[in-house]
Design a protein that fits this description.
Layout (H helix, E strand, L loop, with lengths): L1 H17 L13 E4 L24 H10 L3 E7 L10 H15 L4 E5 L15 H9 L7 E5 L2 H10 L2 E4 L7 H6 L7 H14 L4 H5 L5 E6 L3 H6 L1 H10 L2 E6 L4 H4 L7 E4 L14 H14 L3 E4 L8 H9 L5 E4 L10 E3 L7 H12 L30 E5 L11 H13 L4 E3 L6 H8 L4 E2 L6 H9 L1 E6 L3 H9 L3 E4 L6 H4 L6 E4 L20 H4 L3 H10 L14 E2 L16
Parallel strand pairs: 1-2, 1-4, 2-3, 4-5, 6-7, 6-9, 7-8, 9-10, 10-11, 12-13, 12-15, 13-14, 15-16, 16-17
Antiparallel strand pairs: 3-18
The chain binds zinc ion.
Zinc ion binds next to loops.
């Protein structure tokens, strides 16, 4: 019986890869795909005004047709500075676009930046204006769009708007652009395949969703605050289908667990096979844990892990506690430890990775919910009055892992540059980071080092116009409030998996540094070069790209809306610059 169930669940999980067999009733990740034109859809012919020179790239027509068939709306977002330079006319450009549509099919929006760099517009990529404008044309928001492009500025524009960015490199794409991208596809077909796979993977399987269980579900995320926060959407999905959700977390994740919607009870226990600084495995402690797990009376357990952790040791304890159904992500053979053995390809963002396990187990988000990070209403206190009105910039230099922290000396220079640029800066940090925050804040900032628990820190972040931070918990707090992030991201773990999720972001730092993919907690390279080389002026520029606190970018003032060929989109818009 159990072996049959294991096989059935494995088959069903395999459906995640095929994108088949999904219920498709809950919220979707993506409404639309926005495409760069030259070098992505068609061969890059510099300043082309000649329809005869339009050549679609391999796989584009078939890939776009797959996206259309899946119900995704399509837009083009393209820099065409040849207009500003007088190298071709709007009429010639429209003829080129007509030819593109004749060859690869229609688009629902065309958004073009007609400016040169020197014009200082808000639409020329890497600025995010075209992405905002195209998303609005398509009746959605950037957070529900994928942007596909062939160079770094396409990806930067996508991330700065809070969209997902996919890089499909060509021979002229620079290696550092490839290294920095959150998601790289070998060709257009592969990008399309992965967009559709990710879209389907968060929808519960038809068969599993039909067996609505209710009851008590034990969910597990035994790691630090950031890990618990990124598992939030998956836990909400479980809560949507369960009567009661009990969360098992470690000591370092407890404060974050208290902030998550959908959690009815929290159990805290260290798990020595997860902790980075683990204690010995004590048989008496393990017996006590088994007793506590048995006491939950769970009908089912869902073990959430990150890509370098195994659910199997805990699955064994859950079996010993008598939990009848256990789900987890495991490439390692689980024997009879898992009823749902789910598998996820490398590179998927952690929140989606967890959501896909929930889906494979039969749990999807409520139709009114969204696959974004969110905190429990009422769990977050307001920011202290001394910070003044919302709109300050939070600078959080520290991290539990020093390899992912902003070097203190650099953080102090960033603070100075921000103050000089007219920002109100609030420096935050944990109790053991007071010395660093005091030094960093000396430039004329408010120092909150050691004065906030996680909930209070969330309240401070909620009032910020932007957060400047390494790869650590506060970046995920910012994502939960939609507060833009300047992410000084050490490449020790993949940016695509751990970068701020679905929130406007600019990534800084050397993504190709030797510490890349080492997962090191302490930087293995003398001088911490991946972050130490960031120029404070880059942070100020990143805030400008994010529209903080400059003029808000929006569809009404950016980009030229080119009428869809044969369509009815009015030629409004255009900044007139
Ligand atoms: Zn422009």
């Amino acid at each position: 019986m159990r072996q049959d169930q294991v096989k059935a669940d494995q088959c069903r999980s395999a459906g995640v890869f095929a994108g088949a067999d999904r219920a498709g009733s809950g919220p979707v990740l993506f409404d639309a795909v926005l495409l760069d034109r030259d070098g992505t859809l068609v061969e890059d012919v510099p300043y082309n005004g000649d329809p005869e020179k339009v050549r679609p790239l391999p796989g584009v027509r078939a890939g776009l047709d797959r996206l259309r068939a899946a119900g995704l709306r399509l837009g083009v977002v393209s820099n065409q500075s040849g207009l500003a330079r007088g190298l071709f006319t709007v009429g010639q450009m429209r003829a080129v676009h007509a030819r593109v549509e004749a060859l690869v099919g229609p688009f629902d929006s065309w958004r073009v930046c007609p400016h040169e760099e020197a014009d200082g517009c808000s639409c020329r990529k890497p600025l995010p204006g075209l992405v905002y404008a195209a998303a609005a044309d398509l009746g959605t928001v950037p957070g529900r769009c994928v942007v596909v492009g062939d160079i770094g500025r396409d990806v930067t524009a996508a991330l700065a708007a809070g969209a997902v960015g996919v890089l499909v490199p060509t021979p002229v794409t620079r290696p550092e652009e490839v290294a920095a991208a959150p998601w790289v596809a070998a060709d257009f077909s592969e990008a399309v395949e992965e967009i559709l796979r990710r879209q389907h993977a968060v929808q519960p399987a038809v068969q599993a969703a039909a067996v609505r269980r209710g009851g008590t579900v034990l969910v597990v995320r035994a790691d630090s605050a950031g890990d618990v926060l990124v598992t939030g959407p998956a836990i909400r999905a479980v809560a949507h289908g369960a009567d009661r959700v009990v969360l098992l977390c470690g000591p370092r994740g407890r404060a974050a667990a208290e902030l998550l919607p959908g959690v009815d009870e929290v159990i805290e226990h260290p798990l020595p096979w997860i902790d980075p600084d683990p204690g010995r495995v004590d048989p008496a402690q393990m017996q006590a844990l088994i007793g506590r797990l048995a006491g939950v009376g769970a009908d089912e357990a869902v073990i959430f892990t990150s890509f370098h952790q195994s659910p199997l040791p805990l699955a064994l304890l859950l079996r010993m506690a008598g939990v009848p159904r256990v789900a987890g992500i495991s490439d390692d053979y689980p024997g009879s430890l898992l009823d749902v053995r789910h598998r996820v390809p490398a590179g998927v963002p952690e929140p989606e990775r967890a959501l896909s396990l929930a889906a494979a187990t039969g749990y999807g988000l409520a139709p009114t919910d969204q696959p974004t990070l969110r905190l429990r209403a009422g769990a977050v206190p307001p920011a202290p009055a001394r910070l003044g009105a919302p709109g300050y910039v939070v600078l959080h230099p520290g991290s539990a892992a020093s390899s992912r922290a902003i070097p203190p000396e650099l953080a102090a220079r960033i603070a100075g540059a921000l103050v000089d640029a007219g920002y109100r800066v609030v420096v935050t940090g944990g109790p053991d980071e007071r010395e660093v925050t005091a030094a960093v804040a000396a430039a004329g900032c408010v120092d909150l080092g050691g004065r906030t628990g996680l909930a209070e820190l969330a309240g401070v972040v909620a009032g910020a116009a932007a957060v400047v931070v390494g790869n650590t918990g506060p970046a995920h707090l910012a994502a939960a409030f939609g507060v833009p992030v300047v992410s000084l991201f050490a490449p020790t773990v993949p940016f695509g998996q751990w970068g701020p999720y679905r929130v406007p972001t600019v990534r800084l730092g050397d993504a190709a540094a030797p510490c890349r993919d080492t997962r090191a907690a302490t930087c293995p390279v003398p001088g911490h070069p991946c972050l130490a080389g960031v120029d404070p002026a880059e942070v100020v520029e990143a805030l400008r790209v994010l529209g903080v606190p400059g003029e808000p970018v929006g569809p009404a003032t950016t980009g030229v809306a080119v009428p869809a060929i044969g369509g009815s989109v009015p030629a409004t818009g255009g900044s007139g610059r």
